[in-house]
Amino acid sequence: MLRPYRKEDAEVICSWLRTEEELYKWSADRFNKFPLLPEDIESNYGLQIRSGRFFPLCYIDDEGNLLGHFIIRYPKKEDDSSVRFGFVIVDPQMRGAGHGKKMLQLGIRYVKENLSASRIDLGVLADNYSARHCYEAVGFREYGRRKSDLPIGIWECIDMEMNLEPITARESTAVEKERAGIVLKRDTKKSNRSR
């Protein structure tokens, strides 16, 4: 599940950024400092949170353990039609188990239910194949490429987007049942027939 970022999360997030290359793949040129310290995250996030257009979120398991983190922000001051996902990261020990996909799916739902945007975009370095695959798996599609000049070299960045459909009545009911702790069963006859 998702919960708002807390100050104590910064230390854990910093521990996931083990190399300078990992830092720049995660943050592009937003921090330009390695090793990243918890107070660096706090300082960066604090100003933006106060704007009301920046939402840092954490993905946790049922026991409350931090598994992942990302932010949602409105990139343009006067435009609420589009948000951007950024600083997407999953605990290195938990990668490859579908946590990134689930976290992003919850983030997409968060946008649909809580924000006015009809579009989400993000950027990913072209050689970050596992992240690209994850983004594509939840519905993001490439719409552009650009060069990004970082302290560790010039990297190709892929911009990806997804256009959001409004939540249907059926999805809304499913969300409410999930929040109430009701597990929805699939119609096994229907899924067997479609194979």
What is the fold's blueprint, element by element?
Blueprint: E1 2-4, H1 9-16, H2 20-27, H3 38-49, E2 54-60, E3 66-73, E4 82-90, H4 99-114, E5 119-125, H5 129-137, E6 141-150, E7 153-163, H6 169-179, H7 188-193
Parallel strand pairs: 4-5
Antiparallel strand pairs: 1-2, 2-3, 3-4, 5-7, 6-7
Helix pairs in contact: 1-3
Can you give a write-up of this model?
This protein has 195 residues and is an alpha+beta fold. The chain has a single domain (2-166), classed as Gcn5-related N-acetyltransferase (GNAT) (Aminopeptidase). It has 7 helices and 7 strands. The protein has a 7-stranded mixed beta sheet with strand order 1-2-3-4-5-7-6, sandwiched between helices. Helix 1 (9-16) packs across helix 3 (38-49). The longest helix has 16 residues, at 99-114. It is globular, with a radius of gyration of 18 Å. The model is unreliable at 179-195 (pLDDT under 50).
